[in-house]
Amino acid sequence: MKAAVISFPGSNCDLDLQWAVQQIAGADCELIKQDQTDLSSYDVVMVPGGFSYGDYLRSGAIARFSPVMTALKDFADAGGYVLGVCNGFQILTEAGLLPGALQWNRDLNFICEPVTLTVDRADTAFSNQYQVGEQLTLPIAHGEGNYYADPETLAALEANGQVVFRYADNPNGSVHDIAGVTNAAGNVLGMMPHPERAVEALLGGTDGLGVFHSLIQQTKGADIRGAR
Amino acid sequence: MAHVEMSPTAIAEKKSYLDLGLTEAEYDRFTELIGHQPNDTEIGLASGMWSEHCAYKYSKPILRQFWTKNERVLMGPGEGAGVIDIGEGKAVVFKAESHNHPSAVEPYEGAATGVGGIIRDIFSIGAKPVAMLDSLAFGDLNQPHTQHLVDRIVAGIGGYGNAIGIPTVGGETNFDGSYTRNPLVNAMCVGIMDKDQIQKGKAAGVGNALIYVGAKTGRDGINGASFASSEFSDDEAADRSAVQVGDPFMEKLLMDACLEITQQHQQALVGIQDMGAAGLVSSSVEMAGKANSGMALDLDLIPQREANMTPFEIMLSESQERMLLCVRAGFEQEVLDVFAAYDLDAAVVGHVIDGHQYKLYHHGKLVCDVPVSSLTDDAPVYEQEAKIPEHLANPAPDFDPIVTDPVATWKAMMAMPTIADKSSLYRRYDAQVQTNTVVLPGSDAAVIRVRGTHRALAMTTDSKGRYLYLDPQVGAAMSVAEAARNLVASGAEPLGITDCLNFGDPTKPEAFYELAEAAKGIIQATKAFNAPVISGNVSLYNETNGHAIYPTPMIGMVGLIEDLSTITTAAFKHADDLIYLVGETHGDFNGSELQKLQTGGVSGRLFDFDLEAEQTNQAFVLSAIRQHLVTAAHDLSDGGLLVALAEMGFANGLGAKIKVTLPTSWGFSETQGRFLMTVAPENQAAFEALNGPAKLIGHVQAAPEFDVTTVSHHFSVALGQLQTAFEEALPWYMNQKA
Amino acid sequence: MFKAKVYVTYKPSVLDPKAEVIKTALSRMDYHNVADVLYGKYFELKLSGTEAAVRKQVDTICDQLLANVNMETYRFDLEPITEDEA
Amino acid sequence: MFKAKVYVTYKPSVLDPKAEVIKTALSRMDYHNVADVLYGKYFELKLSGTEAAVRKQVDTICDQLLANVNMETYRFDLEPITEDEA
Ligand SMILES: Nc1ncnc2c1ncn2[C@@H]1O[C@H](COP(=O)(O)OP(=O)(O)O)[C@@H](O)[C@H]1O
Ligand SMILES: [Mg+2]
């Protein structure tokens, strides 16, 4: 698997994602800038967490005007795999690559803590190493992670089985306890919890590794170092 | 509120320098030093540079006595931050800074810009910031004003740290009435670097350029340094001009760009310093002073956000997110290009010149021409008079607690705001970004691994204002000891400390006495734990309407763990592990949380402190941990033995059964130098063979229940009951109406 | 030259947590005569061009940047200003 | 019954990082005719009472709650509304 992580000005989980994919999951992973316009050499492009452009207007709102986003749209349209984590998820919704929007957490406070997720779909490019119903512990760290979609969109999401992860105990007010959702085609996933923060036992758990192993499995080729 | 310029004669006649915080004697001294009547700009610079914040004019005689060097210290106080060797080619850099006054006026931005400021100190040394800690003190939490301050200050710290991507991994939150109008907001930042890349804030080499980078200068926070060096009164609460808005996005770019320069453009860089208190003047003149250089700046080249700023305003503005670099002649473009790639405003604004004068030009006119030393080394230093405060000269009688219902007291103690769970606050901080945090907030010290080595760093902040109020010297030594105890419980060996000395008005003999005595205690204890002071900060005038805070030195300590497998946390791990109490317990209650619970305050003579026993106990605990004989360790501090025991049980829902030969009330005594540890049954013999100062008092049990036998009582309580009291106290208080 | 005053608010169907917090705060301040609170963002932009062009442009800026139309709505007023006011 | 429209913006001397970032975004969208951006908050409150009382109350609410007077200024308009509109 050849992956890239897009580093926007203000991204701050870019190096963490790269570390998880490269040092821990053992796949190729490059950091690229927001002005990159050609993504054709990658299997997977990841949009990291952080505060792109300070998140000053709305989280993710400004990043979507970066040159790389046009390329990312083409990449996704062509079937490339796109993973957005936290701010990455927010950027993907702002850019229209994923449905819905992320609103301020129900209690208006930033929340950093481990949460329990339930795997809803184990047949996606991002979750094929998990079992349906499996419970995962992943950290969240966000102020605007309260997923919102209007009723029709929501009904369509559920009907198409686009919800991949749900909160077991909803921390932020997200509709239908949605923690991670794909586009209709299933090749773009956005999730608020941070899988890259749960890949080493030393740091408290390895439940997030499955996301990266799933992508490696999906894109074949690369060998998986250290089974889940 | 724009600044109106006055002529040198008008300044002398109208004595307008008095409004800037300079005395007549200081005005005369400055006039003599510079050899002419100071003009408006010059007197403004003096007021900033001669403030306590920049010149340490009252605290210097105290700070000089600190113990600042051992074999590991690479750089002590004097630069942006201190540096200590941690082996394997790496060094740790750390410093703490207070932002008490700004946070009292505007809690969110005051706290946020405090975080921003301390981060700049760390990366100006060339270190990558890897962790933040925050030490907070507030008034009583049943006051709506306090609730508001807690909410906004915590939001501000998180707002900045979370956005810039530095994990906030620890800290402390204390509550006492003395902080009602003067909350303490001390932020500490820790960085890691290759030990051969240390940068200094100096401007040397005639012809070398000064490059300004970062946010444009505006009229925000003008002369905040002298603002922070005076007391509050009710009128000044309405003085709302000294507020800046933090921009963590800008600082992230600035940090990344500056680190790129310190790491990859070393041949271009002579020196680098952040613009903190007294903004452009302090950073530039200090850089010249350290290299014994002269300097000329052209103020028209300073990036400005507002029109028609006067030299006074430009030089004393405390706009945030700015840095000053001295760059070798010929390399200017190379450095400007790096900044341009990050979309940052940067400009060459001046040069190092021959001689020792500090010259400023504005619209082609020379507006300041003074010796560099008149603003730095020649600033006044005062030896103050010290006088023992009345409550120390004639202490109240000893407090002797009576505990008739042990379970009720235990629950009430768990809910004391200073003791209660702080997770509702620290969950608002990203503690994990950068993915190095091994021990999260909630245990004793936080632990960060050092990438590229087998090592980890443990870090903590501790302050004990209540103890210092009853005995500043012993209380300060206890603060250092508690910090060390927290590190040791995590498996770390203390490396060094940074401090924020939060005190009252130093011109009052009683307040100065407290400061001088506290320093003595810090010196004794730092030597005892081989943890020199490598950096720090002073915040005086923490008074409102004449009422000072408790004297509160904040101790930030960093320790080294050489082997990741020896990292230890406070949580019980397994049922049947044996519980040992390390250290002697006495009836030590004056200044304790139990005294506060039962009497509403603290009074009397502070209980004794056996520094030697503390050293012995810490050495024993560390050695047992390093031999892998310990499954959990927790230091005893606020609330003593029973509080610590309960805290150890909460994380994994494990109870305990213990028996102690102490009176029940002594279960809440705060005798120093103690730990609780657990040892797996199979290691009992090996552990006891160490012959340490540890006594077996019971064991961990699977049942979520604590069962305690003392000489006077036998009682048991469900873990859940104590945990509810512990966890719900802060959220409950925060929702109280007046 | 025109000044555009832009108002961005949540769609009525979206619960706005910030407005809720303000309501709670008002009732803590014992203001029980406040019936309703709406919270939004307010922008002023100064733009040059013909009125029609500016109107179209502001609409695009709102739609793509200033509001997230998945959960927010916007409206704006244009008023002509002189160069001095700009 | 009155509707109060409240505008809260930064004081002119305070740096507004949000407005700066919006300006950057507009120039990336190739809108070079936008001269200036102001970013603020907008509130609508509905309140009952006499005009004078309501005016005084809204002023207090702004000063103590809606605006942070350390760095923001506010202004508001009051308009009478009927019970139906409320
Ligand atoms: N303001 C804060 N920010 C971050 N962490 C905090 C804060 N207040 C308390 N904590 C964390 O809560 C835990 C308990 O704090 P404290 O009771 O002060 O510990 P100790 O008594 O061991 O010094 C620690 O892990 C500490 O880092
Ligand atoms: Mg402790």
UniProtKB/TrEMBL annotation, chain A:
Keywords: ATP-binding, Cytoplasm, Glutamine amidotransferase, Hydrolase, Ligase, Nucleotide-binding, Purine biosynthesis. It catalyses: L-glutamine + H2O = L-glutamate + NH4(+); N(2)-formyl-N(1)-(5-phospho-beta-D-ribosyl)glycinamide + L-glutamine + ATP + H2O = 2-formamido-N(1)-(5-O-phospho-beta-D-ribosyl)acetamidine + L-glutamate + ADP + phosphate + H(+). InterPro entries: Class_I_gatase-like (IPR029062), PRibForGlyAmidine_synth_PurQ (IPR010075). GO terms for cellular component: cytoplasm. Pfam families: GATase_5. It is found in: Cytoplasm. The active site is at residues 86, 194, 196. GO terms for biological process: 'de novo' IMP biosynthetic process. One of its GO terms (molecular function) is phosphoribosylformylglycinamidine synthase activity. Its main location: cytoplasm. Pathway: Purine metabolism; IMP biosynthesis via de novo pathway; 5-amino-1-(5-phospho-D-ribosyl)imidazole from N(2)-formyl-N(1)-(5-phospho-D-ribosyl)glycinamide: step 1/2. Its EC number is 6.3.5.3, 3.5.1.2. Part of the FGAM synthase complex composed of 1 PurL, 1 PurQ and 2 PurS subunits. Part of the phosphoribosylformylglycinamidine synthase complex involved in the purines biosynthetic pathway. Catalyzes the ATP-dependent conversion of formylglycinamide ribonucleotide (FGAR) and glutamine to yield formylglycinamidine ribonucleotide (FGAM) and glutamate. The FGAM synthase complex is composed of three subunits. PurQ produces an ammonia molecule by converting glutamine to glutamate. PurL transfers the ammonia molecule to FGAR to form FGAM in an ATP-dependent manner. This is Phosphoribosylformylglycinamidine synthase subunit PurQ. It comes from Lacticaseibacillus zeae DSM 20178 = KCTC 3804. The lineage of its organism: Bacteria, Bacillati, Bacillota, Bacilli, Lactobacillales.
From TrEMBL, chain B:
Pathway: Purine metabolism; IMP biosynthesis via de novo pathway; 5-amino-1-(5-phospho-D-ribosyl)imidazole from N(2)-formyl-N(1)-(5-phospho-D-ribosyl)glycinamide: step 1/2. Keywords: ATP-binding, Cytoplasm, Ligase, Magnesium, Metal-binding, Nucleotide-binding, Purine biosynthesis. Mg(2+) 2 binds at residues 121, 274. Mg(2+) 1 binds at residues 97, 537. It is an enzyme of class 6 (ligase). GO terms for biological process: 'de novo' IMP biosynthetic process. Residues 78-193, 442-561 form the PurM-like N-terminal domain. Its main location: cytoplasm. Monomer. Part of the FGAM synthase complex composed of 1 PurL, 1 PurQ and 2 PurS subunits. This is Phosphoribosylformylglycinamidine synthase subunit PurL. The gene is purL.
Automatic annotation (TrEMBL), chains C, D:
GO terms for cellular component: cytoplasm. One of its GO terms (molecular function) is ATP binding. The keyword Ribosomal protein does not apply. Part of the FGAM synthase complex composed of 1 PurL, 1 PurQ and 2 PurS subunits. Its main location: cytoplasm. Part of the phosphoribosylformylglycinamidine synthase complex involved in the purines biosynthetic pathway. Catalyzes the ATP-dependent conversion of formylglycinamide ribonucleotide (FGAR) and glutamine to yield formylglycinamidine ribonucleotide (FGAM) and glutamate. The FGAM synthase complex is composed of three subunits. PurQ produces an ammonia molecule by converting glutamine to glutamate. PurL transfers the ammonia molecule to FGAR to form FGAM in an ATP-dependent manner. Pathway: Purine metabolism; IMP biosynthesis via de novo pathway; 5-amino-1-(5-phospho-D-ribosyl)imidazole from N(2)-formyl-N(1)-(5-phospho-D-ribosyl)glycinamide: step 1/2. Its EC number is 6.3.5.3. It catalyses: N(2)-formyl-N(1)-(5-phospho-beta-D-ribosyl)glycinamide + L-glutamine + ATP + H2O = 2-formamido-N(1)-(5-O-phospho-beta-D-ribosyl)acetamidine + L-glutamate + ADP + phosphate + H(+). This is Phosphoribosylformylglycinamidine synthase subunit PurS. It holds the Pfam family PurS. It is found in: Cytoplasm. One of its GO terms (biological process) is 'de novo' IMP biosynthetic process. It is an enzyme of class 6 (ligase). It comes from Lacticaseibacillus zeae DSM 20178 = KCTC 3804. Belongs to the PurS family. Keywords: ATP-binding, Cytoplasm, Ligase, Nucleotide-binding, Purine biosynthesis.
